[in-house]
Write a structure and sequence with these properties.
About 45% of the residues are buried. The strands form three sheets. A six-stranded antiparallel sheet has the order 1-6-2-3-4-5. Strands 8-9-7-10-11-13 form a six-stranded mixed sheet, with helices on both faces. It has three domains: about 10-80, SH3 type barrels (Roll), CATH 2.30.30; about 80-275, 3-Layer(aba) Sandwich (Rossmann fold), CATH 3.40.50.300; about 295-650, no CATH class. The chain is built from 27 helices and 14 strands. The chain has about 650 residues and is an alpha/beta fold. Helices cover about 55% and strands about 10% of the residues.
Length: about 650
């Protein structure tokens, strides 16, 4: 566990009182002065604490207090002693919010477990100490199950840190204590932060931190992560721990689970007070969302409303931005490149009808056509996540998803895939086995298109009647579920049983919701946009070298024989590897029949992932598994599209 932070080397005159530092160098060239410094213990590598910053400065070094004038202090350069602090706890207890409060670095914190799937860290000042804070993915115990659990367990068990801050959830205080006891037994200086205490109190749950501290002999502070209450007290407690690392006395923790739960019972009895309150309408609605009889109709209504909101918002943004792009940006950027050389073709396009410019088409596709839908999708997704609906939807879909080889938790990346496949593929990290990840990848690639592609399918087929739109989505749904069921039958192993916490139902806070949406937009800009631009570049190279024309000619005959499509559409089909929604839109000039459009949309949705998705999949699943998945989806899409074509002929 390492933080890639530079050593903070400054003059002794620049540090604050009560700051621990190490002497880096003495800049004076005077041998007598250097000798004088040495006699007082001020040598390279010596540890010091500044007690008074005004001249004369007062230092504590080698157990002695030393007064030093500012002119002499300027000749001493020091570096901060950077301590390591780990934030640990169960999933969904609010560690990421606390990480943001402590460091100022924005981290996504949603109302469903598994949000933190990679280690985040930042170096910051807490009180008088310089500290690198690590946000460790949430775990329920120190025995690893999934890949994310394994990495988190290794970090905690390695004990390569100075202080552990264990975050407990006031709403689920009893459950949080089990991991807290396991962590405390490691013997590292520990602070308990009981988060969400204010919202828990509103529901009749009160925790006495002094009683917890008394029983476990461990400093305990209550905080409210979202509002920031209690963090001054928490920072003081962390600073005190860091200054007295050797003083911390590890309490005796029972070795057996039975002993731990007995101790937990004692803590809960003495430290927790419950007041009965009748469930609110919102809490009753949360219960209805997990019952099949009421949950399925609610899910249908919610997802339908979300789809139309996303489509409306995306189309409105595109209709607003496209004229600005075409009337202002495009003429300006093309005027800068008068010649028609290779560089111009690559940067602004124009070499042929299949030529896409990096500074023109790539930016229009990435920042207008796609990002309009991505922003709308993540705004809805983060709202539902903070509300607590996504875990309830996972519970609702668990029994159905078991039939196709994954548990309900796998619904989250699949739902994300309805917006954009790139973050959805990244989301498979939360699944436990290679088998489950393989099936989940196939499902999210085949079950339904991404939001921008869905909008294009609706746009191009709506003039022929909504029944054809429904036909495409119905075929994709049936094919995806059938493929999952098939893989579940032939692949060794069984889908794991669901084990997931259902968080409290809560209304999202606008500021935090906007921060998380912005974080997702940045993730898209840095992860997906460069891959889209790189894909455009590859297509241009393929077009200029004749590879694209050759592939188009080779695939013309199969397109006509298997799908009943004009041979000219083969080049458009190949462009689907770059951007499927744009390729579907490019079918319009061919004046295809409804049957041909249905066949083309089914094939183009499933046959291969887009460039950005392929690159992310290679990173997440590896080359071998990615190649097998692409080969499988290509074979199934060819068979299904062919069957659709021949059924229309009957």
């Amino acid at each position: 566990m390492q933080a890639n932070s530079e050593e903070n080397i400054i003059s002794l005159t620049e540090i604050r009182p009560d700051t621990n530092v190490t002497v880096h160098e003495i800049t004076s060239q005077d041998p007598k002065l250097i000798k004088k410094f040495s006699s007082l213990g001020i040598i390279k590598g010596a540890h010091m604490v500044l007690k008074k910053s005004k001249s004369p400065m007062v230092l504590e070094v080698a157990g002695t207090k030393v007064a030093l004038g500012r002119s002499m202090a300027e000749k001493v350069r020091v570096k901060f002693d950077v301590k390591k602090l780990v934030l640990v706890g169960n999933p969904n207890v609010g560690k990421s919010v606390i990480f943001t409060r402590l460091t100022g670095i924005k981290a996504v914190s949603s109302n469903f477990p598994g949000t933190t799937i990679a280690l985040k860290h930042s170096t910051t000042g807490i009180g008088s100490e310089k500290v690198t804070v690590f946000d460790v993915p949430g775990i329920y115990n120190l025995e690893a199950c999934s890949k994310a659990d394994k990495e988190a367990c290794e970090i905690v068990l390695k004990k390569d840190y100075d202080v552990m801050v264990c975050v407990l959830d006031a709403h689920h205080f009893e459950r949080s204590l089990y991991f807290a006891l396991e962590a405390l037994a490691l013997g590292k200086p520990t602070l308990f932060l009981i988060n969400k205490y204010k919202s828990a109190k509103a529901k009749g749950i009160t925790i006495d931190p002094r009683m917890v501290s008394k029983i476990l002999k461990t400093p305990t502070v209550v905080v409210e992560g979202l509002s920031g209450e209690g963090f001054k007290t928490a920072a003081h407690a962390i600073t005190k721990l860091l200054k007295n690392l050797t003083v911390f006395e590890t309490p005796k923790i029972p070795a057996t689970d039975e002993g731990k739960w007995k101790l937990i019972g004692e803590i809960v009895t003495k430290a927790q007070t419950l007041k009965h309150k009748h469930p609110s309408m919102l809490e009753m609605f949360a219960e209805w969302c997990t019952r099949p009889l009421t949950g399925l109709p609610i899910a249908a209504v919610i997802l339908t409303i979300c789809f139309f909101i996303i489509r409306f918002a995306g189309e409105t943004a595109i209709d607003t931005l496209t004229p600005l792009y075409e009337n202002y940006y495009l003429p300006f950027i093309t005027s800068l490149f008068a010649d028609k050389g290779m560089l111009t073709v690559i940067l602004v396009g124009g070499g042929s009808e299949n030529s896409f410019g990096i500074l023109t088409d790539a930016l229009q596709i990435a920042l207008i056509d796609v990002m309009s839908y991505v922003i709308a999708f993540y705004a809805i997704l983060e709202f539902l996540a903070d509300l607590g609906y996504l875990p309830r939807l996972s519970v609702l879909l668990d029994s159905m998803l078991h039939k196709v080889g994954i548990h309900g938790y796998g619904a989250i990346p699949i739902i994300m895939g309805l917006g954009c496949k790139v973050p959805a593929v990244m989301g498979i990290r939360i699944l436990e086995s290679k088998r489950e990840k393989f099936i989940a990848l196939v499902l999210l690639l085949m079950l339904a298109p991404c939001i921008s592609q869905s909008a294009m399918i609706i746009t191009i087929l709506s003039p022929h009647g909504l029944k054809y739109v429904a036909m495409v989505f119905g075929i994709l749904l049936i094919t995806g579920l059938a493929s999952g069921a098939f893989l579940n039958k032939i692949m060794k192993g069984n889908p794991p049983d669901m084990f997931m916490e259902i968080p409290a139902w809560q209304m999202p806070k606008i500021k935090d919701w906007l921060i998380k949406v912005w974080y997702r937009i940045k993730e898209y800009l840095f992860d997906a946009v460069p891959l889209i631009i790189f894909g455009i570049f590859l297509i241009n190279i393929a077009e200029m070298t004749g590879v694209l024309d050759w592939l188009a000619k080779v695939t013309q005959a199969p397109m006509q024989a298997l799908f009943g499509l004009p041979g000219e559409t083969s080049s458009v089909m190949l462009l689907g590897f770059l951007r499927k929604d744009v390729s579907i839109a490019l079918l319009s000039p061919f004046n295809l029949t409804a049957a041909q459009l249905v066949t083309a949309c089914v094939f183009m949705t499933m046959y291969v992932p887009c460039t950005a998705t392929v690159f992310v999949m290679l990173k997440e699943a590896g080359i071998k598994q990615s190649v097998v998945i692409i080969a499988f989806t290509l074979a199934i899409s060819t068979a299904v599209a062919s069957a659709v074509h021949f059924l229309f002929l009957i």
